[in-house]
Amino acid sequence: MTPDPTYDVINNEGARPIKLWTSGVPVEQSAKQQLSNTARLPFIYKHVAVMPDVHLGKGSTIGSVIPTLGAVIPAAVGVDIGCGMMAAKTTLTANDLPDSLARLRSAIEQAIPHGMSPRTRSFKGPDKGSWSKAPSAVDAGWLQLKDEFDEICRKRPTLKNTNNYKHLGTLGSGNHFVEVCLDEQGFVWLMLHSGSRGVGNAIGTQFIELAKQDMRKHHINLPDQDLAYLSEGTQHFDDYLEAVGWAQKFARINREVMMQNLIAAMRTVIAKPFDTHIEAVNCHHNYVQRERHFGRDVLVTRKGAVSARAGELGIIPGSMGAKSFIVRGKGNPESFNSCSHGAGRIMSRTEARRRFTVEDQVGATKGVECRKDAAVIDEIPMAYKDIDAVMHAQRELVEVVHTLKQVVCVKG
Fold it and tell me: Which cofactor does it need (predicted)?
């Protein structure tokens, strides 16, 4: 006897089905409306798959998997192209960490530029989130990117003036982070979350606007203008796939460079020799790529979702103060071999700042060496869904390999 599926289905007239792995977790009505809008697009293939961390996004929900034939939606990929996670297990254990975790956090903050300087007319200094003098790891990484970028800039000259080289190996702000974690056996893991930084934002923003211009030019009405798409066979479509592919490569190398500098920072504080990458994962969760599903070659956009092919390792982080997971994919075809990219927000940043105080943040991050000030209240754990409920809802998509708990967290 076949067990009941662990997903729900929404069928709307004139739209593709929506399959949701959200049992036991809240889904806001506005997110369901966004999903319905997306499912009505004529080029959606089979169905839209919805992960348990789903929440309202720009145009398309964060936590959704959108398979398409003959078109791509730039706003569904978003402006943090290639944003994702990297984690590496070390031979260190909890006993090897210094008594002063604040010292360790400080070393990491000095090794990896993070945050963003205020964008005001009065501010004239360099962006604190960029390199003033980049280390050799940045140069080595940029060599893998430069030639392709020059070709993209030949077609799109305005991209040349973006923060590209100076942002490689930097963290950014918002929900991006660097963490030192312990697994269930007490081994130390290094984990970080970032994407394609300023250059990815510029690429995403430019092609989102070009897609909107195409819609106006061809008098195409959409339920949401942020669902503007680029059609296969057009120059904009080809140029976007080239640029987005490069930005995803930038994001992956960005995380690799940060990891190198994170390890170097650890060695300045911990005298004991240690190895890293005993187990390692580097995965996107905002991206688009060609894949084969149900016998067809399709473009799969994962907006806040991770590839979870059978046997593939991925990372599902919680929030500040909550546990995270290294997972192994089960290759569930109905989810287009995908899983969630995290816990998912249950309230906006504005609402979190309105509702919670610094004292709440201090209590929620007890035992974690991290910032505990008003500027990070919007990242308080209570602004996110219960990670245990999220993991239970996707039990047919992934299995847990390691459970991690952070002891140090660096936020932009």
Answer: Mn(2+)
39-72 pLDDT, tens digit each: 999 999 999 999 999 999 988 999 999 999 999 9
Q: How far apart are CA 390 and CA 321, in angstroms?
A: 16
Q: Which among 114, 176, 193, 341 is annotated as catalytic?
A: 341
Listed residue (8, 80, 16) closest to 45, CA to CA: 16
* 341 in catalytic set: yes
Domain annotation for the chain: domains and CATH numbers: 8-118+129-346+384-411 (3.90.1860.10)
User: For residue 370, with 0-12 CB atoms within 10 Å meaning exposed, 13-18 middle and 19 or more buried, which class applies?
Assistant: buried
From CA 218, how far away is CA 340, in angstroms rounded? 35
Here the tokens at position 316 are 């599902």
- 155: its two tokens: 């077609």
User: Cα separation of 235 and 126, whole Å?
Assistant: 36
Query: Which residue, 271, 294, 238, is CA-closest to 71?
Result: 238
How far apart are the C-alpha atoms of 7 and 21, rounded to whole Å? 5
Burial of 233 (0-12, 13-18, 19+ CB in 10 A): exposed
What pLDDT is stored for residue 2 in this prediction? 42
Q: CB–CB of 282/250 below 8 Å?
A: no
pTM (predicted TM-score): 0.95
* Side-chain half-sphere exposure of 11, counting CA atoms within 13 A: 0
